[in-house]
Each structure stands twice: as structure tokens, then as C-alpha cells.
Amino acid sequence: MKRISKTKEDFGWAKWDAETIKRVAREILDKKKGILDEIKKLSDSELNFENILYAFERSNDVMEPCNYFSILMNASPDESVRKAAEESIKIIDRENIDLGYDPDVYKVFKKYADTNPVLEGEDKKLFDDSVKVYRRMGMELPDEQREILKNKIKRMNDLATDFALNIQNYDDYILATLEELEGLPEHFIEGLARNDDGRYQVSLKYPEIGPFMQNAVRAEKRKELMDKALRKGGEKNVAIAKELLELRKSGAQLLGYKSHGDYMTELRMAKNSEKVTKFLSGLMAKLQSFVDEDYRVLLDYKRRKFDAETSDLKYYETGFIAEQLKKEKFSIDSEKIRQYFPLDHVLNEMFKVYGELFGISFSKTDFILWHDDAVAYEVKNVQDQGTVGYCILDLHPRPKKFGHMACWPVVSGRLDNFGSGNFVTPVTAILGNFNKPTASRPSLLSHDELETLYHEFGHALHNLMSKTKYASSAGTSVVSDFMEVPSQMMEYWVWEPSLIARFSKHYQTGEPLDSETVAGMIASKNYLIAWATMRQLIYSFFDIAVHGENYPEDLAQFCNNLIEKHQYIKLPPNLFPAGFGHFAGYDAGYYSYMWSQVIAADFFHKFKNSGLLNPDTGREYRDKVLAVGGSRDEVETVRDFLGRDFSDDAYLEEIGLKG
Predict the structure, then answer these.
(1) Strand 387-394 to 427-431 pairing
(2) How far is residue 480's CA from residue 415's CA, in Å, rounded to a whole number?
(3) How many distinct helices (H) and strands (E) make up the chain?
(4) What's the sign of the alpha-carbon dihedral 219, 223, 226, 232?
(5) Which part of the chain is the Peptidase M3A/M3B catalytic domain (predicted)?
(6) pTM value?
(7) Which residue from 185, 194, 398, 436 has the least number of CB within 10 angstroms?
(8) For 343-528+593-654, CATH number?
(9) In whole angstroms, what separates CA 434 from the centre of its chain?
(10) CATH T-level assignment (fold) for domain 9-100+102-136
């Protein structure tokens, strides 16, 4: 299939103003309505796959500018653009629901479905998925109940958008004098904004709060910042969370499910919430004794170094104590290691690794995007120089920009027409918040941030290398408990000694990390792994539990109790899950990260056993996993690549707990 290179004009959307966004929003809705109107006019003799199922695909393809709106809402420096994008997304979400619930369109589809069409491959998958979607939308419910469900979905979409934006726009910080920044490296302090009186601002953005909580010597300042972090999202999001829970529960029960958790897991690999709960509870039980040991180690270190009479760990101490013990135990200083990972060098070496593994190259374009920090790369096949796709990187923080790191599909790869031999070239974007370069140093990544970069590029590769016929199954359009597999698998590469040396280059001397430091990093890989994993399991358990048949009135206290039970840390009253971004768009799905890790480790061991940069394994992975996206059952994809069902042996080995 031929992929066409893009030009500057194809990225003109990156400079849309507010009025253009509003106009385009109306135009694409009108286009979608036009396609659906064509379906409603079909005669019985015209009922076929192209006129109905592919028409559904086309009606979604014309809505692709919604991806542009999402990027601009999260990354544009222009407030009017962000606001217009936000408002347009809300309008489109609401009207899309009405269009999806059009009973006349459903009647035509149902008439076609009743003919039991003989289909295969991606066409059959698209048809089967459409049948399930209509059932889960409540199209078989009585009219009155269907209308109630539709209105609930509209409200949930609006609330989810508000919830995410309340987190993104939540702007709080502490003020600190230079003396109160004791323990923080010079480059960190240089990057901080300053107040009118000269004091430094330390915000809740993760490039600031993370290093601060690990390195700031003044406990009272760590407490002050953590107390603010525990209120991120604000009271507004507490109210939204409770309303969302009630809407999700009542909507699922209207469709005949016991809980929203059962509704959400039905189409995933897990199939039901009971299986998820057993999966999480089982892992928590297996890890508890290791967590107990981690707690003892941290508490002993606190007594030895800071407070001989202490009887517990405070919620604002664990990150600091863990980091100081790590430095002592492994002779590792995360901030010194950061000096060896300048962003430009890291990107260049990462592109080379992907070139060796997958036969692709990356080259900068001169496309004009929404901000000078944003850069588009053209990705090509090395063998024939054919275009694979485009990857946009916007990796530094700005006011009101998306506050974490994530990958967006911008243009989904797909056939450009029914039965066509031409392929729409995919575009993907990664938004991040790595520290900005200063006059005296480049942007420098911690090893954790390097791992995060590889994680997000795992998603980007999934989007770029898709070869599916339809956008609805392209790239990361897979079930959520498989979606993180490609991203989590890529994280393992940054822990291989030979590659760490290759990725590292001191920003001043040009020297790689010495072998002793690399050995210490590898030895520290599973340092306090049970402790860190338990926190992820707690949040996963919280998520699936509150989406059960009943949910606790005090959500924050419910989570606090889980943390105190399993990690012995007592948190003060707080606003959780007001700042828990996954609550809005990953409901009853946070467990997927842990579920996917098991599969990712199994995949990685296939590379490890054949050679980390073996191009044959890379080609097999590209063809059998990345290219197929969600065009077939993910269980089949796993079996195709591994030659068997996955097991947890590789995962347990990777975290040092096998046997």
C-alpha cells in the first residue's frame, strides 16, 4: 500500500485560530450527518458492507480534526484557541451521541445484520464490533430508557472533559528561599520561576514536584508541597467524581450489567471485574511480605540517619528517604546521572536503535506547528525510503499545557477509500514536560524520564506502523488491557547495560557513564520494587472497587485506608481522586497497566533471547503486533508473536521475584 508524504499545508491545522476551529467543528459534523443520511436512504437491494459498515468508517474518518482539537486544547499557547477547542470537543461529543443513537440508521444496520453476511478478516471484525457497540449503546432498550441512557452518556462525556481540564489548569505552588531549597541541584533551581519578592516557585508539575520530594532536605517544605498535591484538581473534581460514579453505575445497570466495572471489562481481555479483582488481590497478597520488608528498610534508614526515636514514616518522607538510601546503597545520584542524558543525544540514539530494530529512520521537517518547541519528524523505511508516518514531539513545559507525558494519534493510518491501494499516512504526537534548556545547559533527563520517553515512543510506533484497513482498528485502537504492552515493552531497553552506555553522553565532557555507575543502576532496578508496585496495585484496586455495585461515600478515605493497610502510611484528609487523571478516561481500567506488564515482559524476553537489536525479531514484532493494531482479537496477536499463550514467568524474573 502506497503512503504519501505530507507537506507543510497538511499541518496547517496547527495554526488554526479560535474561529477556524469553531467553523471546522460545524463542517465535520455536517459531513458526518450527510454520510449517515445516505445510509438511511438505502433500499434493501443496496444493503451491503461498503454502503453500511464502510460508510460508518467514513463518517468517523471525517471527524479526524477532533484529534487536532485535542492537541490544541492541550498544547496551544493561545488561550482563545484552547478554549475554542475545548468547547468544540464538548459540542461534537454531545452531537455525536445523538447521531450514534439515530434509530433510522440503526434500523438499516439491523436489517443488514439480519442477513447474516458472510465476512472474514478485518471486515468481519468490524461488523462484529458494530453489533456489540449497538447493543452496549442500548439500542435494544425501550425508547424511553434508551433516551435516558443517551443523556447519561452526554453528561458523562462533559464531566470527563471538565475533570481532565480541572487537573490541567490547576495552578498551585509553594514559595521557597534559596536556603529552603537545600539539597536541590543547581540546574533545578535555575529552572524555577521566581516570585516578585525573589523567592522560588515550586509547582505541582512533575518535573518539579518529583525531584523536590526526593531531594529537598527541609521536611516542612516537602510537607507543604505534598499537602498541595493532595488537593490537586480541587473540590470541583471531588463533586465531578461522585456524579460520574453514579452515572456510570446507573447507566450500566440500565443495560443489565451488575456494575460499571463489568460493563467496561466485558470487551477486554479480562472479560469481567471479578477476574480483575482476583488478579489484583492475588498479586497484592504475593507482594505483601516484600512490601513489609521494604517498609522496614526505609524505617531503619530513617532511624539511623534522621530520627532515632521515630516509630513510623510520614507521607511526605518516603520519596526523600528512598532516594537518599538509594544514593548510599548503590552509590547512585539520580541528579548526577541526569547530566549524562542530554535530550538531543538521547533522541538521536533512540532513533538509531529503532532504525536497527525496525528498519526506519527519523528526520526533522521544517513544518510550522503550534509552538516553537514542537517539532515534526518524518519517519521512513530505510530499505526503500518510503514514508511510514510523522511523529511530532513537544517535550517542554509551558503554562496551561498538558502537565504529564502522553502520546496522541493525530491521523490514523487506513485505506483512503474502499478497496483502495492507497494508504493514509499516519501522524502521531507526544506531549511531554522535560526540563527546558537554559543558557548554561541543555535539557537533561533523569533515567526515569528516559524510561518514560521510551514508553511513549512504544505507543508512537504502534500508531506509525499500523497497516490496518480501517481507522477504528489502527495503532493503539486495541482493548485497554493490551494497549500498554508495546509501550511497557520498550521500557526494558533502557535497562540494558550496553544500551545505557550508548544512550549516555555527559553534556560537557562527552563521556559515557562509567561501568561502575551503570552496574549500580542495574543493581538498583528492582530497588523497593514491591513498594512501588503495591502503590500501583492499590490505585488499581481502588479504581475497580469504586466502579462495583456500590461505592464508598468518602472516596479519599477509602483510598487512604488501602494505603495504610498495605503500606502503613497514614495520609491526612485530602481530595483524592480529584487529581487522579485516569479517573476520567480510564475508568475501571487502571488495572490494565499491571495486566499489560506481564505480557510486555514476555514479549521482551523473546527479543532478549534472540538478541536485543535483532532485526528479524524486530520485523516479526512490527508485522505481527504493531501492524495489526486492533484488527483481530488481541489474544490471537499474543499467540501469533509468542507461539503460545503468555505467562507471568518473564515478569516475575524481571522484578526479581521468580521462584
Answers:
(1) parallel
(2) 24
(3) 29, 10
(4) negative
(5) 213-656
(6) 0.83
(7) 194
(8) 1.10.1370.40
(9) 16
(10) Glutathione S-transferase Yfyf (Class Pi); Chain A, domain 2 (1.20.1050)
Mean pLDDT of 318-345: 91
Q: Is the pLDDT of residue 659 over 60?
A: no
The number of residues in the chain equals: 659
How many other C-beta atoms are found inside a 10 Å radius of the C-beta of residue 179?
Answer: 8
Q: What are phi and psi of 6, to 5 degrees?
A: -100, 160
Distance of CA 269 to CAs 169, 265, 611, 626, Å? 34, 8, 29, 18
Mean pLDDT of the chain: 95
Residue with cell 489502527: 474
Separation of alpha carbons 207 and 403, rounded Å: 9
Which of the 8 DSSP states describes residue 437?
Answer: P
Contact 659, 529 (CB under 8 A): no
**So where are the chain's domains?**
9-100+102-136, 175-218, 234-243+254-332+529-589, 343-528+593-654
DSSP code, position 258: S
**What confidence category does residue 434 fall into, taking pLDDT thresholds of 50, 70 and 90?**
very high
* C-beta of residue 57 within 8 angstroms of C-beta of residue 126: yes
State the pairing for strand pair 360-364/406-411: unpaired
Per the listing, cell 533471547 goes with 609
Burial class (CB in 10 A: 0-12, 13-18, 19+), 532: middle
Kindly report the three-state secondary structure assignment for every residue of 50-97: HHHHHHHHHHHHCCCHHHHHHHHHHHCCCHHHHHHHHHHHHHHHHHHH
**Three-class SS of residue 319?**
helix
Measured between alpha carbons, how far is 284 from 105 in angstroms, rounded to an integer? Answer: 47
318-330 vs 273-305: helix crossing angle, rounded to 10? 70
The residue type found at 441 is R
Q: What is the pLDDT of residues 495-508, one digit of tens each?
A: 999 899 899 999 99
Q: How far is CA 18 from the centre of its chain?
A: 27
CA separation for the pair 75, 89 (Å, rounded): 15
CB 295 within 8 A of CB 531: yes
Nearest-CA neighbor of 446 among 584, 528, 335? 335
| pLDDT level of residue 4 (50, 70, 90 thresholds) | confident
Q: What is the mean pLDDT of residues 446-469?
A: 96
Same fold, 9-100+102-136 and 343-528+593-654: no
- Cis bond leading into 577, ω under 30°? yes
Assigned fold of 234-243+254-332+529-589: Neurolysin; domain 3 (1.10.1370)
